[in-house]
Structure formats: structure tokens, C-alpha cells
């Protein structure tokens, strides 16, 4: 399956340096075959094969949610478990009347969307969720609003008008200390998205979206969430500072002022030392990468080592792994950290590991070739990664 190459489409070097968190960006016709990413046939299958309830699947009309019982029905299983199933005709009527359909976390339901999210995650070192939006009329699903995360939008089918107003509060967050203000009066830009167009919007930018071009619209939005805000960095730093007795002891709130000042000076000195480390932000980014669990996937039917079959396929489940050489008991090893854990490999495992960091499935035989090793050695490597929930295996003929 071909990747979107979204990194190069947005600008591998220029986007982080000039656009990210700063300004919107519209790239017309960037993706030549957007239907490879998602489509209505896929959406129909998802709706039929999964029991999706709000907020995973929801309808909105003019900024208000449509009650789920207006387009789903209860279904009772043999074990008397009740879930809700989409009623296609009720759904059609609501969509025809102007409701918009939203499917959350499509990256967990459709592999091309997972790989699209992984491209962004690996590049920008952040978590990404991909939502799907479908509309049929000019009636807006949402009123003018802003999102609490940066967004990368890809138009799949039809067209949609985006009115972009810009921000009114600098970097608003989910639990902000003040409410965001009303949007500016006039948009700073209007963009009509066509199939294959890509649009980037920073968080906090007001916008309104309508399918007012006389045709249906299907687009996906990759949300970069949660954002790497300063309070997340400070929370991470506070956890690291617990190694110091100063940050484990009780502040002397009942002591004389002189003792309180002495305590505050100790706190300040240790904070200053921690923040003076020129690599502190790199350490924070590494911690966020290796702690990210990715999208775990089982490797059934293999409960132990997979067979030494060169045609078996393997891929990573998190593409934010970190690796570095380490010495353990006098031995040179390769430490691989990610998915909330770490494993120790041998240095000769590095070439196949680097191949695995290229998003997508890889044959055991290809890993053996690039590492100049046997397929049996690849099995040992893959088994370590699978047991750490960093990778997953499937048969080549599995759909």
C-alpha cells in the first residue's frame, strides 16, 4: 500500500520551521489518489461490521448532536448484551436533511488511516487520531468553532468550503483559565477543498466548514493531540524532580518566614539546574516517544515464535521507537525503547530494525537480506519486538 508521503507534501524541513503552530497551509492536489486513504465503500463496511456508539460514531446538525436513537436500533446478543446498530434508512434520511456524519479514530479501524497517522507521528513526535467527516448539504454540521489540537485535513471525495478566521486567544488549551473569545468578524481566508487537497490548521484557529458546492463531501482530519504544551513539559519535569529529597519533602508552610525562604531558594536552585540542561527538551521528547503505546495488534495464531517463513510479514505498532548502543556486563548491545517498555538486542539487529521503522509491512526475507542474517535470526528479533508489543506479524495472504 502506498503511503501519502504527507511529510514531503507539507514540507519536511519548511513545515516545522515556518508553519507548524504558526499559520494555516493549503496544498491543492497534493495527494493524487486520495481514495487509497479512505472511501465510502470503506465507511459502509465499517458501519455494517462494527457496533459504534457516540462519541465514536455521531451525527451533528447546526452544532448540535443528533440523538443516537434517531439513526440506530438496540440489538441484543445471545449473552443478553445490548448494543446499537445503524439503521441505514434512518441514517440516509438524516444525512439527506443536512446532518453530518463523524467517525472518530478511523485510524483504529482502517489500516491506510493508521499508516497516515503514523507518518505524522513519526515526523512530528506527537500522538495522532484520524476522524472521518461526511456531509451532503450546505447545512453546517458544526457552527463556527476552534479545535484544541492542530489538524491536517485531506479531502477524499467531493468538495467543502472552509472559512478560516484565525485565532483570538494565543494557544488555547482544553482546561484553560479563561474562555476563548468570540471569533473575528470576517474570515482571513476561504478555501474550497477538492479531492486530494491538504489543509493544515493550528489549534485555536476559528473556522466554519460547509458542503455548499452542490455535491457530497468526504474528508479525514488528523488531529495532533494532545499538544505538547508547556504544562505537559512541566508535569514531566516535576516527576523527574522527585528523585530529589527537596521535592519529596513537605513545604514548610507553618515555619517562620526565614525557613520558608531557605526552602524556596533550594527549590529555585534545583529547578534552575534542571532547566539549564541544554538537552532537557530532548529528554522530554524522548520520554514522550518511548512512552507512547502506539496501536497494539495481536499476532495470532502465533503464541510463541513465528515460523521461519521468509514470506511472513511484520511491522511496528509504534513508529516512535528510540534506539541507542549500550554496554551491559561488558557486552555491547542495542537498546530499543518504545511502546512503554524496552528490549535489548544485538548490534547486528540494527539494519533490519531500521528497515522496520519504514512504515508498512516487511517480509521476513527482506529483513534477513538487509541484515545479512538467516531467517531464523530474524525470527528471534521479531519475537522480541512482538513480546514487547512493539511489532505485529501476519501471513502474506491475510487480507
Report on the architecture of this protein.
This protein has 3 domains: 6-224, Cupin (Jelly Rolls); 230-276; 313-394, Alpha-Beta Complex (Outer Surface Protein A, domain 3). The chain is 29% helix and 26% strand. It has helices spanning 6-10, 14-19, 40-49, 88-96, 111-124, 230-241, 257-275, 280-291, 350-356, 364-371, 375-387; strands at 25-27, 57-61, 64-65, 72-76, 82-86, 100-103, 128-135, 150-158, 160-167, 189-193, 198-201, 205-210, 217-224, 313-316, 322-328, 331-338, 341-345, 362-363, 391-394. It has 399 residues and is of the alpha+beta class. The protein is built from 11 helices and 19 strands. It has an 8-stranded antiparallel β-sheet with strand order 1-11-8-13-7-6-2-3, covered by helices on one side. Helix 9 (350-356) packs across helix 10 and helix 10 packs across helix 11. A hairpin with a 2-residue loop joins strand 15 (322-328) and strand 16 (331-338). The relative contact order is 0.11.
Short description:
The chain has three domains: 6-224, Jelly Rolls, CATH 2.60.120.650; 230-276; 313-394, Alpha-Beta Complex (Outer Surface Protein A, domain 3), CATH 3.90.930.40. 29% of the residues lie in helices and 26% in strands.
Output the strand order for the largest sheet.
1-11-8-13-7-6-2-3
The H-and-E topology, N to C, reads as HHEHEEEEHEHEEEEEEEHHHEEEEHEHHE
Task: Tell me the name of the CATH homologous superfamily of the largest domain.
Answer: Cupin
**CATH architectural grouping of the largest domain:** Sandwich
How would you sum up the major sheet? 8 strands, antiparallel
Proportion of residues in extended strands: 25-35%
| Uncertain stretches | none
Class from helix and strand fractions: alpha+beta
Overall average residue pLDDT? 95
Which fold name is given in CATH as the topology of the largest domain?
Answer: Jelly Rolls
Number of helices: 11
Spatial separation of the terminal alpha carbons = 12 Å
Indicate the CATH class of the largest domain.
Mainly Beta
Q: What is the CA-atom radius of gyration, in angstroms?
A: 25 Å
Shape by Cα distribution: globular
Strand runs, count: 19
Number of domain units: 3
Helix content: 25-40%
Amino acid at each position: 500500500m502506498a503511503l501519502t508521503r504527507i511529510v514531503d507534501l507539507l514540507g519536511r524541513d519548511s513545515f516545522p520551521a515556518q508553519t507548524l503552530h504558526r499559520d494555516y497551509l493549503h496544498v491543492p492536489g497534493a495527494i493524487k489518489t486520495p481514495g487509497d486513504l479512505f472511501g465510502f465503500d470503506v465507511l459502509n463496511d465499517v458501519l455494517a461490521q462494527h457496533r459504534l456508539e457516540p462519541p465514536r460514531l455521531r451525527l451533528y446538525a447546526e452544532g448540535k448532536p443528533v440523538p443516537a436513537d434517531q439513526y440506530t436500533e438496540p440489538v441484543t446478543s445471545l449473552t443478553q448484551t445490548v448494543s446499537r446498530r445503524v439503521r441505514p434508512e434512518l441514517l440516509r434520511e438524516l444525512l439527506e436533511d443536512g446532518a453530518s456524519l463523524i467517525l472518530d479514530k478511523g485510524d483504529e479501524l482502517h489500516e491506510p488511516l493508521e499508516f497516515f497517522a503514523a507518518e505524522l507521528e513519526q515526523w512530528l513526535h506527537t500522538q495522532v487520531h484520524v476522524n472521518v467527516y461526511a456531509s451532503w448539504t450546505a447545512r453546517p454540521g458544526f457552527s463556527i468553532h476552534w479545535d484544541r489540537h492542530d489538524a491536517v485535513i485531506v479531502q477524499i471525495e467531493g468538495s467543502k468550503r472552509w472559512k478560516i478566521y484565525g485565532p483570538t486567544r494565543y494557544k488555547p488549551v482544553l482546561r484553560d483559565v479563561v474562555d476563548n473569545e468570540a471569533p473575528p468578524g470576517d474570515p482571513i481566508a476561504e478555501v474550497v477543498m477538492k479531492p486530494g487537497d491538504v489543509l493544515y490548521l493550528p489549534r485555536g484557529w476559528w473556522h466554519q466548514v460547509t458542503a455548499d458546492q452542490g455535491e457530497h463531501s468526504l474528508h479525514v482530519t488528523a488531529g495532533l493531540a494532545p499538544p505538547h504544551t508547556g504544562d505537559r513539559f512541566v508535569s514531566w519535569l516535576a516527576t523527574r524532580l522527585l528523585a530529589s529529597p527537596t521535592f519529596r519533602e513537605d513545604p514548610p508552610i507553618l515555619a517562620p518566614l526565614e525557613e520558608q525562604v531557605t526552602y524556596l531558594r533550594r527549590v529555585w536552585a534545583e529547578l534552575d539546574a534542571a532547566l539549564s540542561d541544554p538537552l532537557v527538551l530532548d529528554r522530554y521528547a524522548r520520554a514522550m516517544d518511548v512512552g507512547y503505546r502506539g496501536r497494539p495488534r495481536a499476532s495470532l495464531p502465533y503464541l510463541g515464535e513465528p515460523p521461519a517463513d521468509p514470506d511472513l510479514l511484520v511491522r511496528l505498532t509504534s513508529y516512535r521507537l528510540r534506539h541507542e548502543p549500550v554496554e551491559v556486563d561488558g557486552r555491547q548491545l542495542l537498546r530499543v525503547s518504545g511502546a512503554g517498555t524496552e528490549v535489548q538486542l544485538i548490534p547486528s539487529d540494527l539494519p533490519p530494525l531500521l528497515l522496520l521503522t519504514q512504515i508498512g509491512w516487511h517480509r521476513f526475507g527482506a529483513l534477513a537480506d538487509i541484515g545479512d542474517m538467516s531467517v531464523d535470526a530474524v525470527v528471534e528479533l521479531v519475537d522480541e519486538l512482538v513480546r514487547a508489543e512493539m511489532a505485529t506479524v501476519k501471513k502474506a495472504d491475510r487480507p
